[in-house]
Design goal:
Shape: globular
Distance between the termini: 43 Å
Number of helices: 12
Radius of gyration: 20 Å
Order of helices and strands: HHHHHHHHHHHH
Structural class: mainly alpha
C-alpha cells in the first residue's frame, strides 16, 4: 500500500514559493532581452502575454465573481469577469498591465538586460516611496532616505554613462529611460493597490481581464489590417506559444501566486529582502547566458542598488505590502 501523502510544512511551501518567485523574476529580465529583435515587436510580446494570462485568469475571474456575488451581494464587479469595479479595473489594468508591459518590453529592444537588472528593480522602491509620501502622506525616515540615496547613486552610475553616450549616437539611454518609466508605472499601480487594499489575486485577475478585453482585440484588429508594425504574421507558432506561456502564464499567473504565498509566510519586509536577489542574479544571468559585459561602473551600480533595497527595507516600518507581485 502507498504511504499516506503528507502535506508539506508551511516552511517548505514558503521556501519553494520564494525560490519560484525569484527564478521567474530573474528569468523575465534575461528572457525578455534574449527574445528581443527576433520576430515579435515589444507590443507583440505584450499581446501574447495578455493572451496567455487571459486564457487562465478569465475563467478564474468568472469563478471569483460568482463566489463574490454569493458571499458579498451588491459588491461591484466588471462584466462578470473582474472582481473589482469597472473604474478600479480600468485603473489597475491600464497602469499595472498595458502600460507597464508595453514600456518594459520596449526597453529591452534598446538596452541590455544588465541595465534592466539595476534600473527596474532599483527604481521601483524609489518611485513607490516618493509616490507614497505624496499621495498617502507616508513619512520618509532618515534610514529609508539613505537607502533611496544608494539606489539613486547606483542608477546614476548605470544610466548616466549611457546618457553621456547619447551624443555619440547610441540608443542605450532610450532603454534606460524606458526601464525607469516602467518602474514608475508599476509604482503607481502599487499605490493604487495599497490605497484600495486590493487582494493580490483579485488585482492580478482584474489586470488580465482588462488587458484581455481591451488591448488584445484592438491590437489584433490593427495588426490584421496592417495599421501597425507587427511581427505576428512573420513569427512561427512556437514563438507565439513560448511568449504566451512564459510571459503570460509564468510571469503573471504563477509568479503572482507564488509571491502571494511567499508574503503570507515570510511577511512583506522579509519577502522584499528575498526579492532583492533579483538584480544580482539577473545581471549574472545576462553575463553568463547572453554574453553581456559587466563593466566596473555597472557592477558598482548593481551593488549600490541591491544594498539600498536591503537597507531601505530593513529600516522601513512594518507597513502592509504595497501591492501584489509585479506581473513580470
Amino acid at each position: 500500500m502507498f504511504a499516506r501523502f503528507q502535506r508539506p510544512s508551511p516552511a517548505v511551501v514558503g521556501g519553494l514559493a520564494a525560490a519560484v518567485t525569484v527564478l521567474i523574476w530573474t528569468s523575465f529580465i534575461v528572457v525578455a532581452r534574449a527574445t528581443a529583435h527576433q520576430h515579435l515587436t515589444p507590443f507583440d510580446i505584450a499581446f501574447m502575454r495578455f493572451v496567455g494570462a487571459g486564457a487562465v485568469l478569465l475563467p478564474w475571474g468568472w469563478w471569483l465573481v460568482r463566489r463574490q456575488r454569493t458571499t458579498e451581494p451588491g459588491r461591484p464587479d466588471w462584466l462578470g469577469l473582474s472582481p473589482l469595479s469597472a473604474r478600479l479595473t480600468a485603473q489597475v489594468g491600464l497602469v499595472g498591465g498595458v502600460l507597464y508591459a508595453c514600456i518594459a518590453y520596449s526597453g529591452f529592444f534598446y538596452a541590455p538586460a544588465s541595465h534592466a537588472s539595476v534600473l527596474m528593480p532599483g527604481s521601483l522602491p524609489l518611485w513607490t516611496t516618493l509616490l507614497a509620501a505624496w499621495v498617502l502622506r507616508d513619512r520618509i525616515t532618515r534610514h529609508r532616505a539613505l537607502g533611496l540615496g544608494l539606489i539613486v547613486g547606483g542608477g546614476l552610475l548605470v544610466g548616466g554613462a549611457s546618457l553621456l553616450r547619447a551624443f555619440d549616437g547610441g540608443d542605450v539611454w532610450k532603454g534606460d529611460l524606458l526601464f525607469l518609466l516602467a518602474g514608475f508605472t508599476w509604482a503607481n499601480y502599487s499605490i493604487l493597490a495599497r490605497r484600495h487594499a486590493l487582494p493580490a489575486v483579485q488585482a492580478t485577475v482584474a489586470i488580465s481581464v482588462f488587458a484581455a478585453l481591451t488591448f488584445v482585440p484592438v491590437y489584433a484588429l490593427l495588426a490584421a489590417l496592417g495599421a501597425i508594425d507587427s511581427g505576428l504574421g512573420r513569427a512561427p507558432w512556437t514563438e507565439w506559444l513560448f511568449q504566451a506561456v512564459f510571459q503570460g502564464v509564468g510571469s503573471v499567473v504563477i509568479s503572482g501566486i507564488t509571491f502571494t504565498q511567499m508574503v503570507r509566510h515570510f511577511g512583506p519586509v522579509r519577502s522584499t529582502m528575498i526579492t532583492s536577489l533579483v538584480p544580482g542574479l539577473s545581471a549574472l544571468g545576462a553575463v553568463s547566458l547572453l554574453g553581456e559585459p559587466l563593466h566596473p561602473h555597472l557592477l558598482i551600480g548593481l551593488a549600490l542598488v541591491t544594498l539600498g533595497i536591503v537597507f531601505g527595507v530593513r529600516a522601513a516600518a512594518p507597513n502592509p505590502p504595497l501591492a501584489s507581485a509585479p506581473t513580470r
